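PROTEIN SPECIFICATION:
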Amino acid sequence: MLKQATYAIGHLVTRTALLPPLRHCRFMQQTYTLLYGCAKYLFEQPEYRFFRSHIHEGMTMLDIGAHTGYYSRLFSSLVGPRGRVFSFEPDPWSFEVLRNHTRRRQNIQCVPSAAGDAIQQHRFYPNACNRANSSLFHMPFAEDPIVVEMTTVDSFCRTQQISNIDAMKIDVEGAETIVLRGAAELLATYPPAWIALELNLEGLLRGGSSAANLCTLLQSIGYELHSLSSCGKPMPIADHFAFIHGCTQGYVNIIAIRKHSPHSEDATLHCTCDCHVSAHK
């Protein structure tokens, strides 16, 4: 009942806040951000507890698909002044809110770019009902496409002279596979200890991949897949095909945990699906 009521109120407020005459009003942005954060806290307690237990002082984190910064702010608090959080958000509206929401966090660097498998410009589809569901691919409730910048994790790390990423969160509405393709160098040399991902079943299909292909890719580069218990404890997924088949919603969050030494020489990235993103100039 609480979940249904929160969703109903949330949809009403977010649709109102995202109306073109209102979406740049600071009050509406703050209201949207507050409600979105409350929903995340209420309904993603396992993820919240996992992050609290597995993010430590001094870590370097990537938050790819940061939206308004709910998790970026949490990561910022956990890594402390010696740590760093790089928050990627290509949607101009969400980036504006993200930057305002994190402006006093000196250990957060906001990056106005999508992460993918190429350095290029690309179509991006803002979502009219919930900006968190905006995507590189055409999804339900998509507005007219805009053009955004895209970079790769490897290129970004080279430019920023970052040699080690401790952990990543990737929530990009179906583009998770191409994010990993663009992080091949990092994953082959200094792979993060864990990667938190959303499996958006429809989004992955629209991007030319699938949840099964993404899971297979993660396993092929040395990660074990886990769901989370209610207290945030990782639980191994014995059969990812059965796990995906049992999903009752259109998405599910998983944690991929590195099996071997983070400096394993045989860690390579081979995508088993025909997944790529074409340029749009």
Observations:
- The chain has two domains: 1-42, 44-258.
